[in-house]
Amino acid sequence: MRWLSSLSAIAVALVAGAAQAQTKIDFFFPVPVDGKLAKEMTRLVKVYNDSQKDIAVTAVYTGSYDETKLKAQAAANAGKPPGLVLMSANFVLDLKLAGDIVSLEPLLKAENTTRLKFLDDFWPALWANATVDGELYAIPFQNSTPLLYYNKEHFKAAGLDPEKPPQTWAELVDAAKKLSTAEHTGFGLPEGYDYMGWIMEALCLSNGGRYYNEEYGGEVYYDTPTMLGAVQFVEDLVFKHRVMQQGVVEGPALSTNFLAGKVSMMLLSTGSLSFIRDNMKQAYGVAFVPRNLRNAVPIGGGSLVMFKGLADDQKAAAWKFAKWLSSTETLGGWSRFTGYFAPRKSSYDTAEMKDFMAKNPEAKVAIEQLPYAKPWFATYQTVAVRKALEDEVQAVLNGKKKAAQAVKDAQKNADTLMKPYADQTALKVP
Amino acid sequence: MRRPSLIIGGLMLVTAFFWSTPFLWTLVASFRPQSAGGIGMASLVPDYVPTLGHFKEAFETGDFGVYYVNTAIVAFGILAVQIVTISLAGYAFARLSFPGRDFIFYVFLLQLMLVPPILIVPNLRTIVDLGLYGSLLGVMAPYFASAFGTFLMRQTFRQIPRDFEEAAVIDGAHWWQTLWHVLLPMAKPGLIAFSLVSLMAHWNEFLWPLMVLNEPSTQTLTIGLASFALGTEGGREWGLLAAGTLLVMFPLLALFAVFQRQFVNSFMFAGLKG
C-alpha cells in the first residue's frame, strides 16, 4: 500500500498553503443565479487579494443558500468559522435567533459611525432584513424583486398593445385570457420551494397584506383576507380562468417555457434579467408586478454576514473585506454582471452604471419598482414556516385543495412550528 | 415457448428504453446547439448539427481537470483503504472467535441505520481536531471503515468452505498467508461488488465534500457540477447542465462498460442487487 501513502501525501500537499503573516479568511458564497457567477466571484476576490497585502481571502463556492447555511453552521460549530458568508437575506433573523451570527454594531462603533449612517446609502427597502432588534447583522450585497416579464410578439398577435402591460390583477386576467392559445398559456408563476413563498408574498402584498410581522419573529398572517385573496387568485388562474398550467412548475422550467414561447407572461426575479436578455429571441418587456389593491413587492437576494467564533484579527480582516465588497464600485459591477440590482443608491450615479442603464432600459424598471418594495419574510424557522404555506398552495395548484382550506391549514402548521419561540417570548408573561 | 419470450423481450426493451431516457436526453441535449430555451430542448431526437460548445463552456466555467484528479483521489483512495479494513474485519468476524464477537458485529451493523447527515457536525469536529479540515484526506477519513463492506466480506468468507484454509494451515501457513493466498482470491466477486458500490457512492457524493473542502484546488466534480445546476433564481442552461453531467458520469460509465461482465458475475455471485 505504498501508493496509498503517496496518495495521501499528494492530498495533504494540495491543501497545505504556505504559512504567511497575512490574515487568512474564508468567504463562503452560493451561486443562486448561474455558474458563470462562481467564476466572476473568484475573479473579484483575486482582485481584492492583489490590491493589498494584509488579508488573504479564499473564495469558497458553497452550493445553494441552504447548503451554504449548513456548511457555515457546521464549520462554525467545528471551530473553523468562515470570515464572511453571503447568505439569503431572509435567513438573517433565523441565524441571529440561533446565535450563529454576530452583531456588526461593535465594528461600526469602532469606526465612530452608526447603523443609520452606514445604511443611509442603501435602499430603505433593504434595511429591515439587515437589522434584528435594532442592531445591524448583515450588509445587503445582491438584491432582487419580482417582475412581470411578457412576450411582446404574443401581445401583438393577440391584439394587445405591447407597450401597455397589465397593471392590475383584472387587466392581467383579461390579457392572459386573450394570450392563451393552443400553442402557449397566458400566464405562469415559479412554484417550486423557496420561489413559491416569495411569489405568494408578492401577491399578498399586492393585495394589501403583510405576510408576517416585521417586528416579531413568531407571527405570520396566512389565514387572513389578504392572503386568502392571493391564494384564491392563484386557484382561479388555473381552474376558473384557465390561463395557467395546472400542477407545480419550477422556476427554471418556467423561464425555459418563456424563452420557448410556451408561456406569454410570467412573474420572475429581477435576478433573471441577464439570463433572459442573453437567451430570449423574441421581443419581450418587463413591468411592475400587477396590483389588486396596491403596488408592493418583497425584496429578495443575499447579504453578507459574519459567524460567531472568529478571532479578533479575522473579524477585523473580514470587516475590511466586507466593506470593499459592498463598496459603490464593486456592487455596481456585480449588479451589471448578474442582473441583481445594486443595494447602494450611489452605484447608480457612476458613469458605468448610467451607460449600462441607457443600453438596458428594462433594468430601470427594477429600480423604479424599488420605492414599492417591502422586506422579505423572515421568522423563527423561516424555511419550515415558509414551506407550511408552499405545501398548501401547491396542493391548490394540483387541484387537491380549495384556497379557503389551504390558508387555514397553512396557518395551523406555521403556528405549531413557531410555538416554541412564541412560548419563550410573546406568550411568556408574568 | 417462443411467444412468451418474445413478449418478455419486448417488455424488457420498453423498460430499458424508459429507464435510459434520462441518459439519452442528457446525451442529446449536451450536443444541441441552443442551450437555454427553444421548443426542441426537451426532444430526444438529435435533429441538429452537433456542437462541442457546451463542453467547452463547461471546461471554461469549472476547472474540470483538477476536479477529476481530486475525485479520483477521493474515490479510489477510500476504496483502497476500505479493501484492507473490510477484509481484515470481515475475516475477524467470520473466522476468529473472541468474546463478544457477535455482539460487536451487531453494534457494527447499527452504523448502517444512521442517516449520514446527522453525523456531519460531529464528523467535521473530528476532522478539524485531526487537522484535516479542508484536505482531501478529511473527505476520505470517515469512510475508511465500512459497516456494509465488513458485513459483505464476513458473509463472503463464511460461504467459503473451511477445508481450503485447513489445507493451507497443514502446510504451515500463518493466518495472514491464508487470508492473502486462499481466502481473498476466492472472495474476489464480493470485493468487486463492494468496489462498485463504494466507487459510485463516493464519486457522486456531494454534501460531505462540500462541508470539508474550501480551496478551489481541492474541489471535486459534484461541487463543480452544482454551480451549473443549483441556480434557482436565474434560468437554466440545459445544454451546459447536460454537458457537465456527462463529464461527471463518463469515467464511471466507461469503467462499467469495460468491466461489465465481471461486475454482473460478481453481483450474481454475491446475490446483491445494484
Please describe the structure with a list of short key phrases separated by commas or semicolons.
heterodimer; A: 430 residues; alpha/beta; D-Maltodextrin-Binding Protein, domain 2; 2 domains; five-stranded mixed sheet; four-stranded mixed sheet; 19 helices; 13 strands; 48% helix; B: 274 residues; mainly alpha; MetI-like fold; 14 helices; 0% strand
Task: Detail the topology: elements first, then pairings.
The complex is a heterodimer of chains A (430) and B (274).
Chain A: H1 2-15, E1 23-29, H2 36-51, E2 55-61, H3 65-77, E3 84-88, H4 92-97, H5 105-110, H6 115-119, H7 127-130, E4 131-132, E5 135-136, E6 139-144, E7 146-151, H8 152-157, H9 169-179, E8 185-188, H10 195-206, H11 225-239, H12 251-259, E9 263-269, H13 273-279, E10 284-287, E11 297-298, E12 300-305, H14 312-325, H15 328-338, H16 351-359, H17 361-369, E13 373-374, H18 382-397, H19 403-424
Parallel strand pairs in A: 1-2, 1-3, 8-9, 11-13
Antiparallel strand pairs in A: 3-12, 4-5, 6-12, 7-9, 7-10
Helix pairs in contact in A: 10-11, 11-19, 16-17, 18-19
Chain B: H1 2-30, H2 53-61, H3 64-95, H4 101-110, H5 120-129, H6 136-140, H7 147-159, H8 162-170, H9 175-186, H10 188-203, H11 207-212, H12 221-229, H13 238-258, H14 260-270
Write down the CATH topology of the largest domain in chain A.
D-Maltodextrin-Binding Protein, domain 2
CATH architecture of chain B: Orthogonal Bundle
Low-pLDDT segments, ≥5 res of chain A: 11-20
Mean pLDDT of chain B equals 85
CATH topology of chain B: MetI-like fold
* N- and C-termini, Cα separation of chain B: 30 Å
Radius of gyration of chain B: 23 Å
Total number of distinct structural domains of chain A: 2
Profile the largest sheet of chain B.
none
